[in-house]
Design brief:
- About 10% of the residues are buried.
- The protein is rod-shaped.
- The protein is of the alpha+beta class.
- Mean pLDDT is about 80; it is low at about 1-10.
- It contains 1 helix and 8 strands; from the N terminus they run βββαβββββ.
- The strands form 2 sheets. A 5-stranded antiparallel sheet has the order 7-6-5-4-8, with no helix packed on it. Strands 1-2-3 form a 3-stranded antiparallel sheet, with no helix packed on it.
- About 25% of the residues lie in helices and about 25% in strands.
Length: about 200
């Protein structure tokens, strides 16, 4: 007569093995292990892989990734436009600042300078003491000249005569002042002053 006994567990070399079934056939006892009752350590978990995604799920993942990619590209493009706008505003501010600086600098125009040296001062061809012009007589005493501009020379500042384009130092090499400023030529009554001839000597 065949009968199946209950399964049991036992330890083998320190490991707890799953129960097995036994079959008694006549006077013999036969151990029986069904596929679902194979030996395995007690408490061990089976390595079951996750079910494969369906085509619909894969497509949904791809669509989601593409949507996120488009969102990031739009965000980057928006940030780039913001940067370009700020750079344009900065350039406009720089241009305005430069214009304001230019507006703050008054035009030199033509100004009257009065000689303070009794023996006079000679003209120079360039804003340099050594480059003397011997053909044109310079101002003496209280004579005045009309200057159209100033230039910084190696040793002093020079004024440029508006009539002949030659140069006169505002101070000597030691720093002593040679000319004093009278004012703008357009606002000065030249009848009150003696204008240096500034012409070539005979």
């Amino acid at each position: 007569q065949m009968c199946i006994r209950d399964r049991y567990q036992r330890r083998v070399r320190g490991k707890l093995l799953r129960a097995m079934s036994f079959i008694r056939n006549g006077g013999k006892t036969i151990c029986y292990a069904s596929p679902q009752h194979r030996y395995q350590p007690a408490g061990a978990s089976s390595n079951k892989s996750e079910p494969a995604k369906s085509q619909e799920e894969k497509q949904a993942d791809r669509d989601e990734a593409e949507t996120e990619k488009l969102r990031l590209e739009e965000a980057v493009e928006h940030q780039q436009k913001q940067v370009e706008m700020l750079q344009e505003e900065l350039q406009q501010l720089d241009a305005k600042t430069d214009q304001d600086d230019d507006d703050d600098v008054p035009e030199f125009g033509e100004r009257v300078f009065k000689c303070k040296v009794a023996k006079g001062v000679g003209y120079r061809n360039t804003p340099t003491f050594g480059d003397k012009n011997k053909d044109v007589k310079g101002p003496v005493g209280d004579e005045v000249v009309i200057a159209s501009g100033l230039a910084q020379g190696p040793q002093a500042v020079f004024l440029q005569d508006a009539r002949n384009g030659l140069w006169l130092p505002l101070s000597n090499p030691e720093g002593k002042t040679i000319f004093s400023v009278v004012g703008m030529a357009s606002e000065t009554d030249m009848k009150e002053f003696k204008l240096c001839s500034g012409v070539e000597l005979n």
